[in-house]
């Protein structure tokens, strides 16, 4: 029986830097690079990185961090951390993946002492995928709920609303003459989220999650099904899906921005967003938040970038791609800030409270 053709006859010899005694043990370090395949198009890798980095970290987490850490002044530590931490680590992770053509587990034959790092990244990214898919399930839930002429979170009077529910828009349009105390009221959209979608009134705490929300379960099943279909054929299918998933969010973001800036009171939010409060820069918390935002938004250290780069050809220009993705990610965050803060300005005017008291964590 003829023996299998060794990897060295079909692929360039593995760089000596990656050769270790553990390579002969038949473990995860012995996979052949040619079995992994390559991206099928020139833009597959670039769009995959953009789709991987651009997400909730840009659309909500960045505006909220700017919201609580000095407004426009937050951009100073943000770009400093991007330059000294984000870009170098991003480039290093892409370089390691492209140079080795190995995944986050096998790549650590470069230094077997750190093989636990690869296992840790797999564990962490698994947990992240689980809770991110739950967020996607919420998105699908709202997508289906919005396919009606009368949005269910638009008005009070539904079975899930309480006596605290107050439609501020109706009061404003009605031009009521009697004084209305709106300090302790809740908007119908907030009660729809907390009492209908999450059904928090059916739970007494974290030890009592309440009954199963079957509509959310079906949305979660659909989100996992979509993920499965996207990665069904590895990079051959996921590389094509990103042509939509990495570009369509920008279209939606521009639409939200146009809609946001045309709302009444939007300028109040944008002014708060752009007005720098430089006294915040004296706090170490702001600099820590900026660093956390860079790491969170770029997704470095999760193993995803390393995996994407491992499907590149050996001479892919990742130096160029690094600057395209990291700077594009930062610009997207700033653009999302305008969209979010324009809506916060509108909410501030509708609720009659300052902009810095509109949103809350949790």
TrEMBL record:
Protein location: Membrane
Disulfide bonds: 156-165
InterPro entries tied to this protein: Na/ntran_symport, SNS_sf
Keywords attached to this entry: Disulfide bond, Membrane, Metal-binding, Sodium, Symport, Transmembrane, Transmembrane helix, Transport
Transmembrane segments: 75-96, 117-144, 241-258, 290-311, 323-347
Gene Ontology annotations of biological process type: amino acid import across plasma membrane
Superkingdom of the organism of origin: Eukaryota
Protein name: Transporter
Lineage, highest ranks first: Eukaryota, Metazoa, Chordata, Craniata, Vertebrata
């Amino acid at each position: 029986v003829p023996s299998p053709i060794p990897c060295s006859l079909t692929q360039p010899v593995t760089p000596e830097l990656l050769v270790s005694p553990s390579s002969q043990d038949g473990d995860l370090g012995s996979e052949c690079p040619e079995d992994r395949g390559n991206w099928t198009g020139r833009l597959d890798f670039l769009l995959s990185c953009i789709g991987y980095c651009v997400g909730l970290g840009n659309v909500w987490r960045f505006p909220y961090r700017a919201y609580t850490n000095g407004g426009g002044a937050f951009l100073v530590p943000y770009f400093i951390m991007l330059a000294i931490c984000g870009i170098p680590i991003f480039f290093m992770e892409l370089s390691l993946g492209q140079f080795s053509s190995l995944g986050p587990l096998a790549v650590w034959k470069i230094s077997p002492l750190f093989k636990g790092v690869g296992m840790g990244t797999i564990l962490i990214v698994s947990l992240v995928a689980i809770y991110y898919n739950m967020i996607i399930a919420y998105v699908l839930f709202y997508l289906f709920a919005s396919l009606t002429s009368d949005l269910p979170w638009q008005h009070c009077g539904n079975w899930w609303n309480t006596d605290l529910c107050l439609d501020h828009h109706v009061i404003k349009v009605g031009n009521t003459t009697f004084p209305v105390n709106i300090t302790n009221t809740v908007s119908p959209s907030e009660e729809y989220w907390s009492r209908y979608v999450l059904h928090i009134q059916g739970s007494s705490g974290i030890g009592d999650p309440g009954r199963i929300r079957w509509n959310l379960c079906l949305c979660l099943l659909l989100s996992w099904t979509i993920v499965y279909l996207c990665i069904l054929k590895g990079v051959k299918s996921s590389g094509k899906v990103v042509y939509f998933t990495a570009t369509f969010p920008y279209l939606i973001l521009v639409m939200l921005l146009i809609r946001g800036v045309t709302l009444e009171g939007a300028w109040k939010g944008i002014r708060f967003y752009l007005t720098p409060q430089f006294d915040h820069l004296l706090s170490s918390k702001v600099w820590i938040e900026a660093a956390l935002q860079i790491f969170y938004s770029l997704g470095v250290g999760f193993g995803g970038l390393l995996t994407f780069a491992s499907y590149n050809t050996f001479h892919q220009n990742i130096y160029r791609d690094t600057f395209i993705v990291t700077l594009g990610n930062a610009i997207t965050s700033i653009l999302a800030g305008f969209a979010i803060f324009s809506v916060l300005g509108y909410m501030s005017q509708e609720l009659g409270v300052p902009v810095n008291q509109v949103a809350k964590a949790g």
